[in-house]
UniProtKB/TrEMBL annotation:
<keyword id="KW-1015">Disulfide bond</keyword>
<keyword id="KW-0676">Redox-active center</keyword>
<dbReference type="Pfam" id="PF02852">
    <property type="entry name" value="Pyr_redox_dim"/>
</dbReference>
<dbReference type="InterPro" id="IPR036188">
    <property type="entry name" value="FAD/NAD-bd_sf"/>
</dbReference>
<dbReference type="Pfam" id="PF07992">
    <property type="entry name" value="Pyr_redox_2"/>
</dbReference>
<dbReference type="GO" id="GO:0050660">
    <property type="term" value="F:flavin adenine dinucleotide binding"/>
</dbReference>
<dbReference type="GO" id="GO:0005829">
    <property type="term" value="C:cytosol"/>
</dbReference>
<dbReference type="GO" id="GO:0006749">
    <property type="term" value="P:glutathione metabolic process"/>
</dbReference>
<dbReference type="InterPro" id="IPR023753">
    <property type="entry name" value="FAD/NAD-binding_dom"/>
</dbReference>
<keyword id="KW-0285">Flavoprotein</keyword>
<feature type="domain" description="Pyridine nucleotide-disulphide oxidoreductase dimerisation">
    <location>
        <begin position="213"/>
        <end position="294"/>
    </location>
</feature>
<dbReference type="GO" id="GO:0034599">
    <property type="term" value="P:cellular response to oxidative stress"/>
</dbReference>
<protein>
    <submittedName>
        <fullName>Thioredoxin reductase 2</fullName>
    </submittedName>
</protein>
<dbReference type="InterPro" id="IPR016156">
    <property type="entry name" value="FAD/NAD-linked_Rdtase_dimer_sf"/>
</dbReference>
<keyword id="KW-0274">FAD</keyword>
<dbReference type="InterPro" id="IPR004099">
    <property type="entry name" value="Pyr_nucl-diS_OxRdtase_dimer"/>
</dbReference>
<dbReference type="GO" id="GO:0004362">
    <property type="term" value="F:glutathione-disulfide reductase (NADPH) activity"/>
</dbReference>
Amino acid sequence: MHLTKSTMAEAIQNYVKSLNWGHRVQLQDKKVKYFNLTGSLVDPHTVRGLTNAGKETVITAENIVIATGGRPIYPTHQMSYLVTNYMESCGTRFLKKCTPSKVEKLESGKLQVTWKYVDSGKEEMDDFDTVMWAVGRAPDTKTLNLETIGVKINSETGKIIVDASEATSVPHIYAIGDITEGRPELTPTAAAAGKLLAQRLFGQSSELMDYDNVYHAYYTPLEFTVAERETTQCYIKMVCLRKKEQRIIGLHFIGPNAGEVIQGFALGIKCGATYAQMMKTVGIHPTCAEEVTKLYITKRSGLDAKVTGC
């Protein structure tokens, strides 16, 4: 198999587009009206939205949930010493204690990067085929007008301060996900918190999100995975008793690292794990194993079980 940069970029872009489309379809199926606008808060019950052309739309609601996620920032955490050494042993060159100042596109199509060394102030440049922006993330809250209406944020991180129920300092305004202070920046964590919050707001439950023991994984060159495998080649099926507790009695998994995945779940099944417990488990994202925590479609329903989101 021959992999080119353009092929990889196209595959990534197409995959992201398919996820976005899947989410839009789910919104339509649930009869949720979607506004593609840049929003800011006017008061605890009002959002002002603008289109790219500047057209304004005002939306009011009893409750408002902020879940705008994050955007790239410069790194604030040190890179793992072991990972750096490993990458250097494979031929990766690291320029340490220097700050990139600009990236210019040359007539040849290459990108010329200029950087300055922090200690000496010396400036250098070089040409590259590709520049990847991988510098961490910051909460995307600057345009939301939070401080004007009284929503408290951490001045150092820019994240919104919430309580155990995801409530902010302003009544009727809630926040979940990467923009909240002290919460794991993980997609499954935000998704689980959002579902529980919706259930509480609509009076279906009083259960709070349990943020203890939410695990995650680091994806570095030390870990290898399977390439070029179609999603139609992978399959997961959970077998449960139809009684009230719905104890899990079997799990079928066809996909990458199936043996490693099943080994961990085998202990839970042996200990009497139930379907409800599995659905309350926050998956490690992005992994194949997390799909086991998202098995909502039953065979009897006749619905398409193909994954449409991440």
